Amino acid sequence: MRRRYPDIGKKVSKLEQEAATLAASGEAEVADYHKLRLDIAQLEKKMMTEITRPERVLYFLNPGRLVKVREDGTDWGWGVVGNVVKKPPAGLGTLPSALYSSCGGGYIVDTSLRCSPGSNENRSWPKPCPPHPGEKGEMHVVPVQSPLIPALSKLRISIPPDLRPLEARQSILLALQELGTRSPQGIPKLNPVKDMGIEDSEFVELVNQIEELEQKLFAHPLHKSQDEHQLRCFQRKVELQKFRDELKNRSRVLKKLGHIDADGVVQLKGRAACFIDTGDEHLVTELMFNGTFNDLYHHQIAALASCFIPVDKSSKQIHLRTELAKPLQQLQDSARRIAEIQHECKLDVNVDEYVELTVRPYLMDVIYCWSKGATFAEVIQMTDTFEGSIIHSARRLDEFLNQLHAAAHAVGEADLETKFVAASESLQRVIMFANSLYL
Amino acid sequence: MRGIQLSLNQTQKLRLQRALEQLESLSSKANSNASVTIADTIPVNYEDGVLKGHGTSELDGEVVATMCGVVERVNKLVYVRALRARYKPEIGDIIVGRVIEVAPKRWRLEINFSQDAVLMLSSMNLPDGIQRRRTAVDELNMRSIFEENDVICAEVRGFQHDGSLHLQARSQKYGKLERGQLLTVPPYLVKRRKQHFHNLEQYGIDLILGCNGFIWVGEHIEAKDPMVEDQVNKSEQQNTKSSKNFTRLEEQEQTYTPPETRQNICRTANAVRVLSTLGFNITVEVITETVELSSSLNLDIHEMLGSEFCVLVAEREAERRRLLTKKKG
């Protein structure tokens, strides 16, 4: 990160120039409008989770119903429901965890949506996107997950049974456009309280809040002009400000830890930290400069260094020997201290999460025994991680120890260098470092 | 007053001595306890682990200095920083050097270090700006890029196994330096800063403080955008085929440095020489102050190297330091 510091400085000045050229007229209004939109989006999200509960929504997702689709900031507008399928519960690890938690037993709605015409020609990466303003769109049937539907409409249209021919889809598009022009206030939405019959008091409160905010939004002068360009400029300004703040906070962390001095010139500690990129450089440099590695002999060093290598969580209980427990405790204390410093400098970091993420002692015992000379058979008995993962981690550990050796050389501590070299050599035996595992 | 080779008369000697004593007394007291010579024991708390860094060694269970210098401590690391040492290169340093040899696929530069630095052909932008593999034709045309005795600005990319430096000059701000003066100062007078390239707009000159002690003072040249240059070159190439004689004269006119800029260059160079004789740290602020002092006194450029100006600069620096400590205290 240190090396990137001067480059980031240049990036910031470039972005600042951009910001200066962005039209700043009517900024307060734009800020207001932007905030309204953000608030509405947040409240709608809450409402979405309530509405899209299977027991409520299925009743209304009949073919031909108009639904609004919004995905993470891309507003698709209105589409027509074709079919609803229940999503089979996926196995562990095949879905990214965020998706899995949000649709445990969710539904997929095949919706006809207006897409940009060119986007579906490229078969190899068929990611449809909404048409650009002014572009004539085509209707395509897109599978949409139920959490992405923020609103349902009162209206239903009759759709032709076979949606494959282009004319059938175009007729749906025409019908949608017709409905759009007929209702100048926007297509009437299914009111969750009156039509769907949800009577939760909290929910009613939520709905009222959203209605209020939406009225404010429509009455806002900017809504009529719909100046996308201005809004986009404002969004970029907000992003730029966030970027600048993050830069300031990160350099404050570096100054506090002593990697750079008050003028921003890289110090000896920073130079040593530059050599390390396999593990968390802040933590490792703190350990080295606090003398934690001094009292350990090389087997312990190898075991301690293995905490920085990312491994899958092992569910087995970790029984550590006494000689490993103390260094691990020191490691966790340092990690906590660094997380606290980062938190003080207003970086978005959760202290406990940080300690858990950076300190991974699942392979400590394994590496310790391997370094001392145990056989591979003995070592794999000690944990339930896959053998391939153990070998992979051991190789990464070797690379990490080489980087530590380079850092110790930059600092000038000869004893430490020999320790790291000894640790690295004690690991390189037999099967873990065989050139090819197929021979 | 060590090593100041100036012919000073009696009053000047006294004034200089007084100014230097004032500066010494104003310097921070904390460091005076931390200076060590070779074989001094460094006071260290042995219960905590201690990391022995550069310039230290373990002898009979004690941490002993192997260099003369000042002891620095960072967390548990103890090391000795020498005050007047040979240049010690770090990755990312800005360096000014002179080409002494054109070798196959590389240039060798002299940089005031124990070994010569190497600038590979692949670490240098080609004149046409395109990113491509260097062919044999490029190798044969190396001389058209840099020749012997050219002055070059580059950045340290790394170290070779024998300790000599690898340089790279892949940005617009690096490359051949023309129309200026190269000065040599002791390398410990140039401290590492955020910026080593300075543009003194009021004089129209560029100042490059190389970390190795080579300082370049030259006429200000706009860093050209390579894309723009490509287009300009292409249109120029189409026009110059018929008018070769004219362009040579035009070029000479374009590259003619106005006498005022030349005077400014000489003035700045002399300011640097004076500072280096006195042993003051060389930074842009001090240089500009010295130049302003000389122009305010209406001194001729060659008079700046005289003893009177030297003493004046020392007195001025002592005064400035005194005011600074007054503000702080």
From TrEMBL, chain A:
UniProt signal peptide: none
Alphabetical list of SMART domains matching this protein: DSHCT
InterPro entries given in the database record: Beta-barrel_MTR4, MTR4-like_stalk, RNA-DNA_Helicase, Ski2/MTR4_C
ATP-dependent RNA helicase Ski2/MTR4 C-terminal domain segment(s): 261-439
CDD domains in alphabetical order: KOW_Mtr4 (cd13154)
MF term (GO), any: helicase activity
Annotated keywords: ATP-binding, Helicase, Hydrolase, Nucleotide-binding
Gene Ontology cellular component list: nucleus
The keyword ATP-binding is assigned to this record: yes
Keyword presence, Ligase: no
One Pfam family, short name: MTR4_beta-barrel
GO biological process annotation, one example: maturation of 5.8S rRNA
Name by which UniProt lists this protein: ATP-dependent RNA helicase Ski2/MTR4 C-terminal domain-containing protein
From TrEMBL, chain B:
Start and end residues of each S1 motif domain: 90-170
GO biological process assignments: CUT catabolic process; exonucleolytic trimming to generate mature 3'-end of 5.8S rRNA from tricistronic rRNA transcript (SSU-rRNA, 5.8S rRNA, LSU-rRNA); nuclear polyadenylation-dependent rRNA catabolic process; poly(A)-dependent snoRNA 3'-end processing; TRAMP-dependent tRNA surveillance pathway; U4 snRNA 3'-end processing
Keyword annotations: Exosome, Nucleus, RNA-binding, rRNA processing
Pfam families named in the record: KH_6, S1_RRP4
Subcellular location: Nucleus
Chain coiled-coil ranges: none
Region of interest (Disordered), ranges: 230-260
InterPro entries referenced in this protein's UniProt entry, alphabetically: Exosome_RNA_bind1/RRP40/RRP4 (IPR026699), KH_dom_type_1 (IPR004088), KH_dom_type_1_sf (IPR036612), NA-bd_OB-fold (IPR012340), S1_domain (IPR003029), S1_RRP4 (IPR048565)
CDD domains documented for this protein: KH-I_Rrp4_eukar (cd22525), S1_Rrp4 (cd05789)
The UniProt record lists the keyword Nucleus: yes
GO CC, one annotated term: cytoplasmic exosome (RNase complex)
Molecular-function annotations in GO: RNA binding
Annotated Polar residues bias: 234-246
SUPFAM superfamilies with a match to the protein in the record: Eukaryotic type KH-domain (KH-domain type I), Nucleic acid-binding proteins, Ribosomal L27 protein-like
Sequence similarity: Belongs to the RRP4 family.
Protein's UniProt name: S1 motif domain-containing protein
